[in-house]
Amino acid sequence: MIRVASDAPASGPPAPAPCRLRAAPVRATGHPASFVLTASILVALLAASGAPTPLYPLYQDHMGLSALDVTVVFSAYSLALLLALLTTGALSDHLGRRPVLVGALVVEAAAMLLLASADGGGPLIAARVLQGMATGVATSAAGAALLDREDPRRPGRSALTNSIAPVAGMAAGVLAATLLVRFAPAPAVTVFVLLAVVFVAQAIAISFTTETAHRRPGALRSLRPRLSVPPTTRRALSVVGTGVVAIWALSGFYSSLGPALVRLVAPHAPQAAGGMIFFVLSATATLAVWMLRRTAPRAMVIGGCLSVLPAAILMLVGLHGGGLPTLYCGAALAGVAFGAVSQGALRMILPSRDEQGGAATVASYYVLSYLSMSLPAIAAGAATQHYGLGTTSHACAVAAALLSVAALAVLAATRRGR
User: Which of 139, 63, 160, 128 is nearest to 97 (CA)?
Assistant: First the structure.
């Protein structure tokens, strides 16, 4: 059993989800201001996670970072967030939502200031590790607080917010950073100072809200990660796991090396164009989560895996004369795949509400997801060093397509085996 897990929403987000064991709430409250504040924390956290993407070309130009360095900076955040989810996901059940959120937001603000003052690869990695840990802690507590504040007059509001807020936050963060790169002085400083101010303001505001969970003993014991896949989950995870690997690895490629890919295809394009490619992916993922929220989960996974194939083809066409419009269309289809497969896969593997094991199930899913995002990104960075970004992009597109075909084959075989 794992200590990190979740009453994950029925439609899980393709981004950090609240992972924890539900504590008995002090009282259910659907107060609009508190709910909106908590939702804004999730949006801001994921906006901060996406904000560095448009800045990677600046870091490469001014700090002399290589493609491998960039992917390590990117992956440091994901791996630190995963570690936080595995160790602190149940912490707010013991200490309360409010103190955990306040502490995590203060640490998040400190990470933003470290990013603003970073002058090399080492400081960037340290800041991203701190940011990943704080984001993991805060997303668990914020997601739990949203579920505690479910309004009985509006059932499902918390689940939908938990699904939409992370991907919408990533899109907003990338867009804001891209605009600052284009128009603001010292964009690598400005964006993180602004985010630090937002996190401090949220920490102050959340300290005045009503606590929604009883304090209870066992906080230190809850930090021990123990991961296992419940038997009821293993079959479902084996069916959708290949598709999950495909879309998270493709997303990791776009979010770490996407700006460099834009520079390769269109060397004279404005610098802001690089950040827009991941904005396109995360924005279409947001739309996919919303538009497909009532679709059958298996159909979502199949449709998402099918979307990877033209997405990979468009990436290759963009590299061979198609230009930026083709590249952006490929990123948009990758975003549709990301939103559809992530949401559908979580809904397929989650046990029913009267079964045990939801916590371990969600934790297992995110272990697979974030490893699929981080490790291939590092491998892509290393391959770029040796073989060039063009060759690496071809390999990534083909690998994503083959994984999606394999996932479709498994889905078809299990359908026939029923």
Answer: 139
Residue 280 domain-assigned? yes
* Listed residue (355, 362, 164, 327) closest to 253, CA to CA: 327
In total, how many domains does the chain have? 1
How does residue 2 score in pLDDT terms, banded at 50, 70 and 90? very low
Does 17 reside within a domain?
A: no
Q: How far apart are CA 64 and CA 224, in angstroms?
A: 39
Domain extent for 344: 32-416
Q: Give CA–CA dist 130/399, Å, rounded.
A: 32
- pLDDT per residue over 82-107, tens digit each? 888 788 767 777 778 889 899 999 99
DSSP secondary structure, 366-390, as one string: HHHHHHHHHHHHHHHHHHHHHH-HH
Q: Which residue has the tokens 């029925």?
A: 10
Instruction: Count CB-CB contacts under 10 A for residue 417.
Output: 6
> How many angstroms separate the CA atoms of 37 and 404, rounded?
38
Instruction: Report whether 5 contacts 350 (CB < 8 A).
Output: no
Tokens of 83: 């570690």
pLDDT at 18: 43
User: Is position 164 within any domain?
Assistant: yes
Q: For 288-302, write each residue's pLDDT tens digit.
A: 988 998 899 899 999
What CATH number is given to the structural domain containing 39?
A: 1.20.1250.20
Contact by Cβ (8 Å): 258, 311:
no
Average of per-residue pLDDT across 308-317: 96
Coil vs helix vs strand at 25: strand
C-alpha 224/C-alpha 263 separation (Å) is 44
Indicate whether 94 belongs to any domain: yes
- Residue-wise burial string across 233-257, b where 16 or more C-beta atoms lie within 10 A, e elsewhere: beebbebbbbbbbbbbbbbbbbbbb
Most confident segment among 58-72, 75-89, 260-274, 387-401 = 387-401
CA separation, residue 413 to residues 337, 342, 343, 345, 406 (Å):
21, 21, 21, 17, 11
Q: Token match 């901060």: residue?
A: 48
